[in-house]
Automatic annotation (TrEMBL):
Alphabetically ordered keywords of this record: DNA damage, DNA repair, DNA replication, Hydrolase, Magnesium, Metal-binding, Mutator protein
Nudix hydrolase domain sequence ranges: 7-132
Top EC class of this enzyme: hydrolase
EC number: 3.6.1.55
Protein name: 8-oxo-dGTP diphosphatase
Family annotation (InterPro entries): MutT-like (IPR047127), MutY_C (IPR029119), Nudix_hydrolase (IPR020476), NUDIX_hydrolase-like_dom_sf (IPR015797), NUDIX_hydrolase_CS (IPR020084), NUDIX_hydrolase_dom (IPR000086)
Length: 139
């Protein structure tokens, strides 16, 4: 494995969650690896940047949304053909502004997630998320 692929890249990912449990997903734009796949909004952490600051920056750049507070939720490491990523997932229930598509991405609020395909590393998150947001539902 090359040095580039073996060195993990930190990625800050945010799950905006409405009081009814709906979460916001975005579709990766043309020109990026896995274009057309659905993901939670976010992006790479820049050198010297705190993960929470990267999260807030990406939400302003991609969605025009100010994340007021977000709780760290879980971390996932995944090796893709294009990159080795370390994903830091946050859940936010407190943000300002209506999400707008500022980088030509499609976005969708989802209850039970009906969009596909999802990025491979994000797939297991959906089941964990459902346990969190629908705790009394039978499995
Ligand atoms: N935002 C996001 N990225 C994810 C998720 N799941 C997952 O495997 N990833 C991976 C895909 C990419 O390899 C990486 C995010 O990098 P990116 O290329 O989208 O980041 P970026 O917006 O900063 O991109 P750029 O500046 O390089 O254009 O994390 C997810 O749910 N959300």
């Amino acid at each position: 494995m090359s040095e580039t692929l073996s060195t993990p890249i930190d990625v800050a990912v945010g799950i905006l969650m409405k009081p009814n449990g709906d979460v916001l997903l975005g579709q990766r734009p043309d020109g990026k690896p896995y274009a057309g796949y659905w993901e939670f909004p976010g992006g790479k952490v820049e050198a010297g940047e705190a993960i929470i600051d990267a999260l807030k920056r990406e939400f302003v750049e991609e969605l025009g949304v100010e994340v007021v507070s977000a709780e760290p939720w879980c971390g996932i490491e995944h090796v893709y053909p294009h990159a080795h990523v370390r994903l830091h997932f946050y859940i936010s229930q407190h943000w300002l502004g209506e999400p707008q598509s500022l980088e030509n991405q499609a976005f969708a609020w989802q209850g039970s997630v009906g969009v596909e395909p999802l990025l491979p590393a994000t797939i297991p998150l959906i089941e964990w998320l459902d346990k969190l947001r629908y705790p009394t539902a039978s499995v």
